[in-house]
Amino acid sequence: MTTANGLTTNSTHSFQLKYVTTDGRRSPISPSASGTTWSGLNWGGIPYEWMAAFFGGYFNGHYTTTYWPPASTPLAPNMTLQKIFVSGGNPLDPGTWLNQQLIKTPQGMFLSWNTQAGATYQVQMTTSFTSWGNVGSPRFAAGTTDSMYVEGGLVGYYRVVLLR
C-alpha cells in the first residue's frame, strides 16, 4: 500500500506505478490513473462532492444542502450515513453497505463480511474500544465476500475497516 502526501484540496493528480521485487525482477510501468481530491467542504465529516453525487444539490457551481440528510442519520440498525461513506458504500444500495458477522462453523469461529471487488480491507480487534490493533495483513477483495479465522487468539471485539 502506498500513499501520496501533500495533496491540496480540489486538485487532480495522475499516477503510474512500477516496482522491483526482492529478487530484482522489474515490473512494466502501469497505465496512468488519475483522481481528484475533495474540495475540503464537508457535511458532518462527509465530503460535499459525495453528498451531491448521491443526493443532488450542485447547481450553477454552488452546493446546496437543502435536501441532504444529516451524517448521523440512521439508515438501518447500527448503520448511519457517515458509516456508509467511511466504508465505501452507496447510501442508496444497502447491498453495498459493509456488514460483518461472526460465524461459528465446525472448523471454528470466523469473521465474515461483504466486500467490493478491488477494495482493500483491514480486520482490527479491541478489548477496550479505546485502541484497535490490526489482525493480520490488509486483505484485497477479489470477489464479494471475505472471511478470516479468529478463534484461538485473544477474546475481543472485531471490526473491518476499508483501506481502499
Your description of this structure?
It is a single chain. The chain is mainly beta and 164 residues long. The protein has 2 domains: 39-90, no CATH class; 98-164. Helices cover 9% and strands 37% of the residues. The protein is built from 2 helices and 14 strands; from the N terminus they run ββββαββββαββββββ. The protein has helices at 48-55, 81-86, and strands spanning 12-15, 33-36, 42-43, 46-47, 58-59, 62-63, 74-76, 79-80, 100-105, 108-114, 120-126, 133-140, 145-149, 157-162. The strands form 6 sheets. A 3-stranded antiparallel beta sheet has the order 9-10-13, with no helix packed on it. It has a 3-stranded antiparallel beta sheet with strand order 12-11-14, with no helix packed on it. A two-stranded antiparallel sheet has the order 1-2. The longest helix is centred in the first third of the chain and has 8 residues, at 48-55. The radius of gyration is 19 Å and the shape is globular. The model has no long low-confidence stretch (mean pLDDT 87).
Number of helices: 2
Q: What is the element string, with H for helices and E for strands?
A: EEEEHEEEEHEEEEEE
Overall pLDDT score: 87
Percent helix, as a range, is: under 10%
Write out the strand line-up for the largest beta sheet, numbering strands in chain order.
9-10-13
**Major pleated sheet:** 3 strands, antiparallel
How far is the N terminus from the C terminus? 9 Å
Number of structural domains: 2
Poorly predicted runs of 5 or more residues = none
Report the portion of residues in β strands.
Answer: 35-45%
Based on DSSP secondary structure assignment, what is the total number of beta strands?
A: 14
Nearest-angstrom radius of gyration?
19 Å
Structural class: mainly beta
User: Looking at the structure, what is the overall shape?
Assistant: globular
